[in-house]
Amino acid sequence: MAYDKSYLGDQVATGVLIPTVQGISGIIPGVTVKPELAGLIGAEKADFWYDIAPNIADADAGDDFSVTTVGSKKATIVMTRALHADEKIPQVAIDAINIDVVGAKTLQIATALGNKLGSKFYTDLLALAQAKTYTNGESFIDAIAEGIATFKAGANTKLDGSNDTSFSNATNGILPTTIVVGTTGEKELRQDADFKALFDGQGQLPGTIGTLFGLQVVSSQHVTGVDFILLNYQGVAYPYSLNMLRAIPSENFNGVRLQAELVYPDASEASVLVINSFAMKFTEAGA
Question: Residue ranges of the alpha helices (H) in the chain?
Fold first, then answer.
């Protein structure tokens, strides 16, 4: 008799758990985070490159190029934290477990993991994002339009976790790619006549509710205390990795336990948001 069954690399992990975690958590590759870092399997760390802009210098024609330390840099995030999920499948032997039952239970685990991980992600992101305001009394959609202009003209105040104002969104052409709202913000948008006219819900990605002004719109229950977030996903690094998904006989009851381990980083501004002008959180001025 087999002692356990691992589903780490098969369709249960890649087809059920990871996509569900992405949709529930709001940690969506190419929408809210760098695409190469989300939904890893069996990883303990994640490497990525971030671009702090090329060096531009006046020179005489034919001069040698000066060597600088600006430009693309490599960062490494070690995933030292973990979420453990443990679910019972009663009155079944490990050798006789049905894959459909495993899939259904995995979906429950993925939903719970997604909610927990999403809460951690948005707590970290809101702590690191630049705080901005929009004009008092504006409609929600006008506030987002004003916010986009603010984002495009923004400059970083921190780089690699240190005080630094050398990077400018305007100079380097950094535009927002994503709008993130909470449940109250989603309600306000959906009730706005202009939003209904401009909103495009066609071809939306899992975890998104459509596009507005050409930007992906994400709604998350974990976004609280602000009206909305604007971000460029290329500057947001939040890797997580599924490092265990297994069924094992229970020693405590008649049945099988389905267990999962999802690892994630102990977030810091020097890793998750290296250039802090890539994410801005907005509230109404004077509110």
Answer: 11-12, 18-25, 99-128, 140-152, 169-172, 183-190, 193-198
Please tell me whether residue 26 adopts helix, strand or coil conformation.
Answer: coil
Residue 234 is classified by DSSP as G
pLDDT tens profile 105-145: 999 999 999 999 999 999 999 999 999 999 999 989 999 99
Residue 174 is encoded by which pair of tokens?
């950094």
259 DSSP β-pair partners: 86, 246
Instruction: Collapse the DSSP code of 90 into the 3-class scheme (helix H, G, I; strand E, B; otherwise coil) and give the result.
Output: strand
Single-letter amino acid code for the residue at 94: I
Q: Tell me the pLDDT band of 60, cut-offs 50, 70 and 90.
A: confident
Phi and psi angles of residue 24, each rounded to the nearest 5 degrees, phi first: -75, -40
Distance CA 284, CA 286 (A): 6
- Residue 54: exposure state from Cβ atoms within 10 A (0-12, 13-18, ≥19): exposed
Q: Say what percent of the chain tops pLDDT 70.
A: 91
